[in-house]
## 1
Amino acid sequence: MLDKIEVVGPGYLLTGKSRSSIGPLDGGTSLLSEGAAFKRNAALKPNSIKQQKAPLTQIHARSYKVDHTLPTLKGWDFPIDNEFGEMVAARVNSTEAWPREFSQICAQCRELNFLTAGFVFDEEMTILQKRSETCTLCRLIHEAAQLGADAKSQRTRIERQSSKLVITSNPLPVLSIFRGPDLKIPLPLQLGFPILPNPRSSAFFAILNLWLSDCDINHQDCHVSTKVFPTRLIDVGTYTDSRLCLIETYEEQPTDHRYIALSHAWGDVNRYPTFNTVRKDVSGAKRDVESLKERIPYEELPATFRDTVDSTRALGIRYLWIDSICIIQGPDGDFSEEAKKMEDVYSGAFCVLSANRAQNQHDGFLKPRPQPKYATLTGPGGHPYYVCQAIDNFAEDVLEGSLNQRGWVLQQRALARRTIYFSEAQTYFECGGGIRCETMTKMHNNMADFLGDPKFPTKVMRTESRALKISAFQDLYQTYSRLIFTRDDDRPFAIAGIEKRLQIAYKAKGAYGIFDDGPGGALFHRSLLWKRSEEDMEDSRGATRHQSGAMRLINFPPERNIRVPSWSWMAYVGGIEYTDPPLGSADWAKDEISPSLDMTFLNAVIRDFNLAGRLKDEAHLTYDIERTASDSRRTQCVIVARSKGEKYDRDKTHYVLLVTEERELMDRGEKVYKRVGAGFMPGKYIALHVPGIPAKIY
């Protein structure tokens, strides 16, 4: 159960600090023979925001802190899986995959036996550095120790844990130990690659095909259950017909229900021209729909798209979905309609290819990678084994990589049933069974079940902990709010599929990041209590990644046909967090604020407040957009929740939305307001003794 998992470090889903408390819900070169890579079953049996000054009207106070964040990234397991390794070994040229020339090592290293139980290496750094001048292994260990240990440390102590070597003070392995297929020992040691195949070799695609075949056979949850096609697909052809063209699936029924979807970064579109489909192409480039249905010129595709076509063909799949080609771009395009189908596109894909190492459409991802350093040592029977530079780091290579800072990618990962990630260091595969590395290491993290869940968010909803269920959506939205978009007005669209899944899971209606779980629930009030982030966020190594600061209102163009209300964080650019009442201590003010049936506005009671004479730490109000002395509109409040513990209302902590009147939006004589912030204050500062003003908040 997720509520039994130990929290071991800064976040997996979130890479941030601890948050406020969360209360429970109320109520309810080829190594293969030619062509072998394409026989998939041959070896198988059945946005960061700049720091800004605090708003002039902000009242500082310390909020309650009880951490209910989800379990974290640093708790990685590396289970041995040599059954899969043997299948790969049967498909590759072992002479090239596993070097047999032993490394030049010093006398001290020749005495080491990494294969003994309880192996420990302990040495002074100065001695290790001197020996590294002539010893391959000492050099490897010294470099790893420098990266993984305290810079002031004079000694290094490395222990073997299964097939990994770790420094006690570092949660991640610093070296890996792999065996080749000829070394047979009872010790649990991963059969793995000390060197990586060329990304365009048949050996490379054999690994990818075996990942998919293994998943097909063993993971029922990763199977695509529906056969709904995207509006358009790219036909990449077959072995006998290398056609490349766009098809509209309502006109031409695909001959195979399987298709690949691409996740990629567009990059700076002004600097790197994109390959887009348009409705009418007056440029003469023949990028209109009808021309591309006749032929997509492979030679004109940017490198990332060519690599995707090549990979799709190598995986034996005929159809491909790329957003900029399969969605008509431009003011007269069909983005608004197609954006609503992203859940079906990514969850219906046979596999998603994620071009993590490509910064734009022209970068490509099937490029040589830096080879890991390794030492070849003599094992039992004279067979080699390998001590290698540890390059299995899914967090750094994928989760904290530049592509995963893009807004659309979070949803693509969550909705995909399985994904192949092409990173700068190596290629990874993620499905419901965990994460596989190109080195043949298998990785698992308890929270990989969250966004890696092929039926997202089923696994996290199995927990009996309501706090964790709430934390799931809050952490997800906090993370999403800090991501980067080429177009800020994509913000509501790029999470629509996730939002739909969450609404089903929570049995709630909702819109724009706000849930409506009915009169007996509390998700509505909790989801309203977001505020501009006042915390810097950290990555898994403790480095600051996202900075707090004032938000910026998004200007949605008319063609988007959307009006995001002020009470939604999707109306702004900037990171958010939640102002949560202490655990189990709040009554929700259902008589003060409620949603309209269509979630286009909120019905609310507007009240005055005056913080004159306040004491330190009594109140904390955060404005969404930085206010200045020239802003003359009077700020009022709407009560969302009240603390339970105090006898009198004046002493209760009131959690509020801050609002201002919108005179130009008067609705049939009824007052209309917009949200401008959120926070909390004691009731004595709120005009509770007089009736409030009924109004609508848009």
Note: Residues 1-73, 536-547 have pLDDT under 50 and may be disordered.
## 2
Amino acid sequence: MPKKKEHTPQDHKRQHGKAVAKLLEEVREKDDQHHQDEDEVLMKEEEKEKFEEE
């Protein structure tokens, strides 16, 4: 069995950075799905306004 290499603070930071990035990604995906509904509503509102202006 290979000897486990020393866990340096830099390794820890790198792991932490990856974990944080992954979490942020998941949060963004959920957020995007939530915002898509809002965007669709906003687009419909804008289309109405454009239509009324003409």
Note: Helices lie at 9-53.
## 3
Amino acid sequence: MTTKKKVHDRGNPTYSLLQVMGALSAAGVLAWAILHYALAPEPAPTPMAVEVRLNNQCEIIDDAFMATASDGAKAPFQNGVAMLETRSDAQVWISNSDKYPQFGFETLKVKAQPMLTIATTCQPNNHLDTTMDAMRQQFKSDK
């Protein structure tokens, strides 16, 4: 009687070793690209000089406002222009000047750029009418 040796039949695998290695390599390259480009830290902020131009739509003198940055930098307006020394990642806005602490004013904040024009609009709400009228009288422009 002859005995047959049992041959281990691996069958027909769905994926070859070469395909698995190729897929793992592609996944590794994709993971590297995501980590390198998508999740890379932003560059460090750099010092930036920002020229802020005042578009004064209020009936208040320009001297009542100043340019302000989120890093604490402040600059007064001279002839409608303020030179603000800040950083590239700062937010910039116009607020009331430190010369006039008795009233508060602030515009929307915008990202720092080398040149900005920011408008001041003094459209009061009903509950602010009295305050805005008093400010207009005190800081009336001779324009």
Note: The domain at 47-138 is CATH 2.60.40 (Immunoglobulin-like).
## 4
Amino acid sequence: MDSDVGSLVSNGNIKSPESGNIKSPESGNRQHPHVFCNQVLKTLILFTMASLACLVLYHTMAIEENELERVLKKAAMPNKTVIITTLNEAWAEPNSIFDLFLESFRIGNQTLWLLKHLVVAALDQKAYDRCLKLHTNCYFLKTQGIDFSGEAHFMTPDYLKMMWRRIDFLRIVLDMRYNFIFTVRTLTYLFIIVYAMQVFYC
């Protein structure tokens, strides 16, 4: 029996009686060099992709902020006040209420001068394109993964998302040290704007 044990254990190696192969106790715990290299390579690729994604996102945000700064600076009054409204495709068709809204500035009593201080935040591409045809101070308020082109009814999920996006946009405007008067596209609010600006400048 001792001879059998001696034949199974030799120089720290274990010999399997069935297979006749010799196995090292440490061989099961060792990784082949190419396996380790593959793991390192995968980690580096993931890190690089994450870094590039962050860089692209930062660059995109910087471009959008610079564009917003350009629009606000162009539209601002001497005291850095602008008039802001939002627009989406549902309200941007020809001869729509948006056309009437802009026209009301042109034909109103002492309201034409306010038009150059109006900033239109377009919520989708078609609304932005339509705004550029009619007005000079247009900003594309992009929202990743959400389509704001349709009409959002009061208190529906899309309506609430749109409201929160608008609130966040107005916060950004304030963070950039601009004052604003926010308005919806109705004539009643236009009269309120005129009255507010008269009081503001008195």
Note: Residues 36-201 form one domain.
